[in-house]
Design a protein that fits this description.
single chain, about 425 residues, alpha/beta, Aspartate Aminotransferase, domain 1, Aspartate Aminotransferase, domain 2, 2 domains, four-stranded mixed sheet, about 15% strand, globular
Length: about 425
């Protein structure tokens, strides 16, 4: 027996009554079905999806090959806990990730459920491998909502406001973002100073960095900066940990953003688009590093679920069969062309940028050039009302970021971009 579907209004009433405020979505629409880059809510309204579940749906909602793989797995095994009774999917995913992830030397893998879990375990592995405790992260970085990852985040609100003291021995250095006044040279100088003044170099286990800031505003670290971090890590016996939770799995036109630099880290974390919506993440690192902790020291009840593993294997096949990386590059070019046009036409649009399809621009006050979070918020709210899901981000909440599926059709892409252009004109941007 199936229950009768509920309207948006009815579901909102239930949300208000039963869902914790801190976990409740501010959105008033509820998803009923989805396909590729389109969603329909419970009232039948259509939405163009420029958010992609926050970068989870690079190959689109419900890719047929992934749906088929998940359904097939459901007919076999749903759960055993892989530490109790292992299964083929976990081992095959580990093999595939070892083969494609550009870490130093032969890679080994552990699977988890979320990006935050992956970062938690990356720190555990780094501490075990080095015998050290401290971690250095960067301003604007985002790594998750567990206690360790909250401490690692380079932004206070809304992630740390209400939760008391954070774990210690987490230090911070500036991320190079010239548009907010931080040059690569200055960022590097401050990092070196952090190692002299705050983080005891002999007790620093890892430097953790996003090659492209996600929540921090879609700023890509220059290859030279990443190479300098690699050199600093090598000089002091520190492990370089690269967080590819949002930038990985094709978003930037390569499988991983770090590939644009040629740098090989010791550990990489990944999640989001690796399974097209199924919950899974991974820590991939050099075998000696990954094997540093004792037996049964890593894992959890649900880590590397058979169903999620089936989805990962299907996603990797789709990447090859449908040339997803080429599509990502092409999408990035289309977005950048439109952004450049807007920069010329609207004084409020500034700092257009992209690495592949990881694309964004800032909204600023025309005369002063100051961050205009109010306009960014208005654009996202009005877009939702008109059938477009759009996200902001950045230290000043004035960045409009684009995470639509790279499989989006030109027609749907154009429809969404035209809507943004119409709103920019209406708002006097």
């Amino acid at each position: 027996m199936t229950s009768k579907s509920m309207s948006n209004a009815e579901l909102n009433e239930l949300k208000q009554r039963y869902v914790a405020n801190g976990a409740a979505s501010p959105a008033g629409q509820f998803a009923a079905r989805a396909e590729n880059a389109e969603l329909w809510d419970e009232d039948g309204k259509r939405f163009i999806d420029f958010a992609g579940g926050i970068g989870v749906l690079n190959i689109g909602h419900r890719h047929p090959k992934v749906v088929e793989a998940v359904k097939a797995q459901l007919d076999k095994v749903m759960h055993t806990c892989q530490t109790v009774m292992p299964y083929e999917g976990y081992v095959r995913v580990a093999q595939k990730l070892s083969e494609v992830t550009p870490v130093r030397g032969h890679a080994k893998v552990m699977l988890a459920n979320s990006g935050a879990e992956a970062l938690e375990n990356a720190v555990k592995v780094a501490r075990a491998a080095t015998g050290r405790s401290s971690v250095i992260c960067f301003t604007g970085g985002y790594h998750g909502r567990t206690f360790m990852t909250m401490a690692m985040n380079g932004k206070v609100a809304p992630y740390r406001n209400d939760f008391g003291p954070m774990p210690g021995q987490v230090y911070r250095a500036p991320y190079p973002v010239p548009s907010i006044g931080v040059s690569e040279e200055e960022a590097l100088r401050h990092l070196k100073m952090t190692l002299k003044t705050d983080a005891n170099v002999n007790d620093t286990a890892a430097i953790v960095i996003e090659p492209v800031l996600g929540e921090g505003g879609f700023h890509a670290a220059p290859a030279s900066f990443l190479k300098a971090i690699r050199e600093i890590c090598d000089e002091h016996g520190i492990l370089m940990v690269v967080d590819e939770v949002q930038s990985g799995f094709g978003r930037t036109g390569k499988l991983f953003a770090i590939e644009h630099s040629g740098v090989e880290p010791d550990i990489m974390t990944m999640a989001k688009s690796m399974a097209d919506g199924m919950p899974i993440s991974a820590v991939v690192g050099t075998d000696k590093v990954m094997d540093a902790s004792g037996g049964n020291s890593l894992g959890g009840t649900y880590t590397g679920s058979p169903v999620s593993c089936a989805a990962v294997l299907a996603v990797l096949e789709v990447f090859e069969e449908e040339r997803i990386l080429e599509k990502s590059q092409a999408l990035g070019e289309k977005l950048r062309a439109r952004f450049d046009k807007w920069q010329q036409e609207y004084s409020s649009v500034a700092n257009a940028r992209n690495l592949g399809a990881m694309a964004a621009f800032d909204l600023v006050s025309g005369e002063s050039g100051a961050p205009n979070a109010e306009l960014a918020g208005k654009l996202c709210r009005e877009a939702r009302e008109r059938g477009l899901i759009l996200l902001s981000c950045g230290l000043y909440a004035n960045t409009i970021r684009f995470l639509m599926p790279v499989t989006i059709s030109d027609e749907v892409l154009g429809e969404g971009l035209d809507l943004i252009e119409t709103m920019l004109s209406e708002f006097g941007a």
